[in-house]
Hints:
Elements: H1 2-25, H2 38-45, E1 51-55, H3 57-62, H4 65-72, E2 76-80, H5 86-99, E3 104-108, H6 121-128, H7 135-144, H8 151-155, H9 158-161, H10 170-177, H11 212-227, E4 231-236, H12 246-259, E5 262-265, H13 270-273, H14 290-307, H15 317-328
Parallel strand pairs: 1-2, 1-3, 3-4, 4-5
Amino acid sequence: MKKAIIITIEILAAILFCLELNRVMMPKYVKENKDGRITQEYYDAAKYSDVIFVGSSTVFSGVSPKVIWEEEGISSFNRANASQAMWISYYMIEEAIKLHKPELVCLDMTFIKHADDFVEEPSTRKSLDGMKWSSSKIDCIRASMGEDEKMLDYVIPFFRFHSRWKELSWDDVAYAWYNKPVTLNGYIGETKVDAADPSAMEYSGDFENISPKNMDYLERTINLCRDNGVNLLLFKTPAFSSNWSDSLDEKITEVAQNHGISYFNFDRYYEDIGLDPLTDTSDKGAHLNLDGAAKFSEYFAGLIRSEYDVSDRSDDEAYKAYWNGVINRSSDI
Length: 333
């Protein structure tokens, strides 16, 4: 009996050691690749997320929940990561509905242009490593893995990151147990100005069709929101880029109309938003910078307020206290 107890204690100690080692070995995304912390930071904000914005890097760099709160008293969070495919966005929305059903989901269409076999493992990891274990995470891993990836590497990321011991720093130890916020409700601003070429903003037309997998997950997202009584808005974040097509726009518009939901391609609203390709982009047009995001977020907040019955939390003491905390830490991020 005593021997069995000792063996049990040794097994539990070994498991605990592996779990803690796993924490140390995993990338922390504190000083670089900060979008790797967005998924993890959502959980503390979930109950204050009446609106979620879901999509790729154009969303986390272009939609500022802080500005949206200050403009319209709308409490929101960006559930977006670099190169976030439509199937990952679907499971982010599914999980959010389970945790704290949002009043409105705003889903960006930018990455619907890619093929069914699109896999970008580092970005997928940034989306999923911080996601809590649930059926949504398991299904998302299955939908996102490349052919040479293994489920076990996601279950125990140590197997994927074991070679990081050569590059470990004190931050890997310090932030293994301390979840320092590095985003503003999923927003990561960029102060750099890198002007776009206004003469190169016509769509290339290289993307003609929505792939079967992307269409399936778009339809599943629409049905998921409808079945749970959640409003859904489809949009394309404005970008001074030719990396889109009129054909894609037409197909998304058709899907939206068939389901009675709205789709806004904000590329068509440059003048209304007040965006300037010479001052409001950080990388020659692909992403909005701090000034561009502020303009777009102000415009987007007004549109949401006018088109959807989303709660105004500006007089809610609990929400005000929460957002005061977010705003107070904004100077440190």
